[in-house]
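Suppose you are handed a protein chain with no further information: no name, no annotation, nothing but its sequence. What can you learn? This example shows the usual starting point.
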Amino acid sequence: MKIALGSDHGGFEYKNAVKTYLINKKYDVIDVGTSSKESCHYPIYAKEVGKLVSSKEADFGILICTTGEGVCIVANKVKGVRCGIGYNDDVSIMMRKHNDANVIAFGQAHMALDDVLRRIDLFLNTDFEGGRHQIRVDMFEEN
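A reasonable first move is to predict its three-dimensional structure. Written in structure tokens, the prediction is:
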């Protein structure tokens, strides 16, 4: 499974920890940056993760900034991306089960790393239920 991973400077430390964690679990990780704690623009990285997921070059995406909000908003601007913030375990599961989310976002300043890693596992190991939920997901793309 390929995972696109990106962050800005506010999520840089967690991004590196998440990357190591995923590689140790044998995931193929596409790290789109950033590559330092130097101030940068989160839309660059959120768009890139979104494009990789939307084009199916990556199966899922993970984004990290200070709050998770900015990267989530930007990722959802990419057609075909369904991103939510994994602010607790239940939400990290339900965004997959009911919304077929393909990107999850986190806020480094507001979440413990252990929680983020657990929620990544929950997200990646939960299947979309389809059925009545597929009808709703299809509505996301309607104009």
